[in-house]
Amino acid sequence: MAPRVIFLMADYGHDPTETAIPWKAFHDAGFNTSFATEHGKPANADEKMLSGITGTLLGATKAAKAAYQELIKTPDFQNPLSWAAEDFTLDDYDLVFLPGGHEKGVRQIIDSAKVHKLLESYFPKTKKPSNKSVAAICHGVQVLATASREDGKSVIHEAETTALLHNMEQGIFHATRLFLGDYYKTYGAGSPSVQKTVTDRLQNPSQFKSSLSLSPFIVEDPNYNYLSARFPGDAELLASKAVEMVSSAVKSSL
Questions:
Q1: Is-contact 45 16, C-beta < 8 A?
Q2: pLDDT of 106-152, one tens digit each?
Q3: Which of 8, 9, 62, 99 could form a disulfide with 18 if both were Cys (CB 3.0 to 4.6 A apart)?
Q4: What does the alpha-carbon distance between residue 214 and residue 95 come to, in Å, rounded to a whole number?
Q5: Which pLDDT tens digit goes with each residue over 21-62?
Q6: Residue 35: what pLDDT?
Q7: What highest taxon heads this organism's lineage (predicted)?
């Protein structure tokens, strides 16, 4: 049976690269891919990353835009599940994937008590050896960081991780502030960076791994089937490593 993957998403604001590039990798690997939004309606990407001068200068690459156009025509994307449904569970999936996006619409999933509860239940099941896995990129890591266990600690409290780096977030915010305002600050100007939000929820700051290189960079936790990445430039590597991790984990469980 092919591995099953689910993308947990907000209704609006996900980054098209961080969604479509992993989807294509999973699709090409023969994985069964599903999507879930709050009310079971198709999600819409951050339009600024796809069109206009922002999309041209700062948005998705031509390849990512092509993959996104392919993705949104698929029946799975057009008919998502509802993560708010009472009977919705992540237990049926081999991989939970959390794409990022800095548009303020993604706060819907970052702040969702229901999503936090789902991840509180699922993430501990990824402890090695396991056939369950999680991968997150950019603000997707913030969703995990803000999801708490019964003891109040983050579900990734003991994990090694990365996420959107403070210097990257602040750099693009200040570079674009005159014409985009606080667009690159999901919770508004002056709010803590994604890196700080995530690091504050870890047992030790040294668990947060960073690289300012523009070369692809991901972090694989040694104790959990958990992969994380920083920004769209890491999406392809994250996806390929996720395919390897899930395929190996599923095979070892047979």
A1: yes
A2: 999 999 999 999 999 999 999 999 999 999 999 999 999 999 999 99
A3: 99
A4: 26
A5: 999 999 999 999 999 999 999 999 999 999 988 888 899 999
A6: 98
A7: Eukaryota
Q: What pLDDT does 253 receive?
A: 66
Cα separation, 108 vs 38, whole angstroms: 8
Q: Distances in Å between the alpha carbon of 83 and those of 65, 103, 118, 120, 239? A: 26, 20, 9, 14, 23
CA–CA separation, 230 vs 211, rounded Å?
Answer: 9
Q: Tokens representing 91?
A: 């237990």
Query: What pLDDT, on the 0 to 100 scale, is given for residue 254?
Result: 63
Residue 81 pLDDT > 70: yes
CA–CA separation, 19 vs 28, rounded Å? 14
CA distance 17 to 64: 5
Q: Rounded to 5 degrees, what are φ and ψ at 139?
A: -70, -15
What are the chain's domains? 4-253 (3.40.50.880)
Concatenate the DSSP letters of all residues of the chain into one string. ---EEEEE--SEEE-HHHHHHHHHHHHHTT-EEEEEESSS---EE-GGGTSHHHHHHTS--HHHHHHHHHHTTSHHHHS-EETTSTT--STT-SEEEE----SGGGHHHHT-HHHHHHHHHHGGGGBSS-S-EEEEETHHHHHHHH-B-TTSSBTTTT--B--S-HHHHHHHHHHHHHHHTTTT-TT-TTSPPHHHHHHTTSSSGGGB-----SS--EEE-SSBSEEEE-SGGGHHHHHHHHHHHHHHHHHHH-
CA–CA dist 56, 70 (Å, integer): 19
Structure tokens at 207: 């668990």
